[in-house]
């Protein structure tokens, strides 16, 4: 189990949106690169970065800033998402130096794109399933499609995605704790690496996420927890893995020191 600090970018600043709402924004810093360096110093093993402007606009808007963050974090790997809705945008995101890219809206709406992007960048695509109840939210969480989280997750697994990033939108930014039950159900059903996100708060975030692991020894289960709000609020001791690392869960592309 690892804890992955998350940095959400909007207008060049580090922010957090309560339940994904653009009108409920908290600003944590005007210097995202400095925040990223703080996580590196504290021992973060990877960093999750979201271009919120891109998510709302439908195309990347923070590429230059993300390039600076990625460069500052070397050798810590970075995963990047937000507004990546065509192959050119995904290519550009990887050109920032990011190890993985996170795609959500387009893969939920277009099965052919999911197959194409996973084939084009094998081992480097993380599929985001952002849930409002059982359904998937898209376009910066402003719309909900008919497809369920499990359906999109199964398609991601079959297409060869490196991992699934599951977020309960209703928990995001609330610090009320992750949706352990639904994360566990998804892990059992999909049987691929799951990154848990949304609501991670003061009650031992990594341990909470770990409790969602599928009981089957075959299932990859939950092997990482992304946290933004709670980690952004406090002066933290060094980040440590809580519980086993679950390195066995990750495909080689996720375990390598470089790609």
Structure description:
This protein is an alpha/beta fold and 259 residues long. It has one domain: Alpha-Beta Barrel (TIM Barrel), CATH 3.20.20.70. It has helices at residues 32-42, 52-57, 63-73, 87-95, 105-109, 111-120, 149-159, 180-190, 205-210, 229-233, 252-255; strands at residues 2-10, 13-17, 25-29, 47-51, 78-81, 100-103, 125-132, 135-138, 143-148, 163-168, 194-197, 222-227. The protein has an eight-stranded parallel beta barrel with strand order 1-4-5-6-7-10-11-12, surrounded by five helices. α1 runs parallel beside α3 (63-73). The longest helix is centred in the first third of the chain and has 11 residues, at 32-42. It is globular and about 40 Å long. The two termini are 22 Å apart. 51% of the residues are buried. Mean pLDDT is 79; it is low at 204-222 and 229-259.
Number of helices: 11
Q: How is the quaternary structure best described?
A: single chain
Identify the CATH class: Alpha Beta
Q: Look at the structure and name the CATH superfamily.
A: Aldolase class I
């Amino acid at each position: 189990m690892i804890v992955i600090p998350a940095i959400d970018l909007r207008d060049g600043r580090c922010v957090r949106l309560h339940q994904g709402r653009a009108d409920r924004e908290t600003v944590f810093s005007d210097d995202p690169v400095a925040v990223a360096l703080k996580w590196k110093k504290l021992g973060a093993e990877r960093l999750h970065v979201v271009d919120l402007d891109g998510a709302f606009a439908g195309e990347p808007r923070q590429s230059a800033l993300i390039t600076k963050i990625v460069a500052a974090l070397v050798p810590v790997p970075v995963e990047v998402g937000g507004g990546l809705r065509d192959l050119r945008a995904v290519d550009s995101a990887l050109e920032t130096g990011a190890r993985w890219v996170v795609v959500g809206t387009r893969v939920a709406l277009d099965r052919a794109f999911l197959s194409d992007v996973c084939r084009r960048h094998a081992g480097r695509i993380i599929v985001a399933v952002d849930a409002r109840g059982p359904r998937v939210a898209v376009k910066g969480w402003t719309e909900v499609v008919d497809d369920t989280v499990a359906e999109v997750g199964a398609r991601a697994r079959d297409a060869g995605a490196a991992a699934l990033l599951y977020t309960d939108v209703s928990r995001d930014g609330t610090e009320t704790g992750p949706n352990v039950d639904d994360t566990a159900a998804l892990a059992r059903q999909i049987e691929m690496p799951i990154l848990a996100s949304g609501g991670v708060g003061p009650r031992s975030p990594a341990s909470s996420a770990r409790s969602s692991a599928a009981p089957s020894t075959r299932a990859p289960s939950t092997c990482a927890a992304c946290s933004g709000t709670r980690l952004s609020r406090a002066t933290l001791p060094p980040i440590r893995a809580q519980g086993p690392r679950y390195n066995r869960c990750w495909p080689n592309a996720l375990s390598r020191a470089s790609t």
